[in-house]
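Title: Prediction job returns without error message
Component: structure pipeline
Severity: low
Priority: P3
Assignee: unassigned

Description:
Job completed but the reporter wants confirmation the result is attached to the right record. Sequence as submitted:
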Amino acid sequence: MSLLRGSFSVVIPAAGSATRLRPLTTSMSKAMVPINGKPCIDFILDRVLKESNVGKIVIVDGPLDDIRNHVGRRYGDRVTFVKQGELLGPRHAIEVGMNAVPLDEHVVVWLGDAIILDEDVVFGLDFLMTIEAEDQSPWCVWGGLGSRLYVNKPKSTVPGARALVGLYSFSSSVAAKNAFTLTTGYDISDALNAYERMGRLFHDLPAKEWYDIGEPRTYHETRAKLLNRKARAFNTFDYDADLGLLTKRPVNPDSAYVNTIIAERKWYEELTKEQSMFVPRTFPCDHGLSMTFSSGILLSDLLLYDDIPESTWSYIIRRLVNVVEKYFHSERMPLERMASFKADAAIMWIQKSRWRLNEADLDQSVVDTLMEFADQLADAARPVGAIHGDLHLGNVLYDPQTDRLTLLDPRGRFGDTYGKSGDALYDWAKLAHDMYFGYYALVANAAPNPLSRKIFLEVAPKDDINIITKGGLLLIATAIPLHYEDADRQERMRRLVIDNIDGLK
């Protein structure tokens, strides 16, 4: 929390594209690279907006409009945009942004790809946020050998120098503007030197929570480290970077949380060798679930934030459907589980729906219709030997470098039965609630991808499409109480249910 008197402006240069992350991304601004469902720019804005004395926020974007479209939808007029007409580098982008902020405030420059979550920062004092970097060659470094000079991407290590991570705070917006407008060049090192020649000396503020997304390796590591910040997480995560091992533990010893982990472990234990090819590798762990951390990007993130051609999307989704149907749904349910299948289907579709809908704040007529859908789904339930149980795009990774799909976070329980068996329609309904109805767009308050519903209708089984879409809408409705932390999101979900229910009767 800032203790500085007076307000401070924020300039966020974000004109660059995520070229170094290709082929994980195709065409998006680097600030829009998503981390577990949240674009990089959102981490920055959410952190800045915690400060009560933040003033004008200016984002300098480039030729793409993806940042301003997303930010405008999510943050409204709280943020101002200016275009960097020519991509002349970060120093010029900051100069463009400086021209749009008041000259009677402190000013902070925060690079659009810098995820920094440190608390108790006094924004507006003269400081540079730094880290110690073993390899200094990709960085602008500061100091070392008794010097206060800034060196951009040194060819040899400068002993004692610190790497700048992309957060610069200036006590004087006038001096900062002069430093960036009266210097030239691509990088910012000359401007920082110029600011100090004006008699304003930065102090070093070591970063405690800085995360790198500059290349695929560091992007995947950041995804792993930030899993604990994923919304509505029922688990905590520990990540061992040396082993590439992720350990999931329940957030508390409550039986519901513990049983969720136990169920997931049981699911993995029952997989065939072929099914195991499409999931992380697991390892024995008495206190949780340990698994390899898989590379790739979530299909939900690609759906919302990347501009992927229809042919590519169709290929990926058809691959996903083929994997699920060929290697999971084709397995027959064992007789000992068939005996309880109808009862389990009633629990999943009817009992759970009734309990959730009582907390969804929907008109009784809407609830009654949804419960009719639940009855129909329980009757139509199709027993198979293996399902995922939570098959939405936020639980599927795609790695374009290997053309590999990885299924994450299985339910591991169908009704009262632990393990991998269940109702094939439940997987389809989960996919429908995401692709047909746009669950993730609702949650993120993002524009839905128009290709999503079209491709889903192409791959979904035609004979079951009516019951599948009923199941998808029902799952949207029953998720409303789970999003208690965001009333606006709940209202978007209610509106979608109300707008679509009559067309499914």
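Comment from assignee: result matches the submitted record. The longest helix spans residues 310-329.
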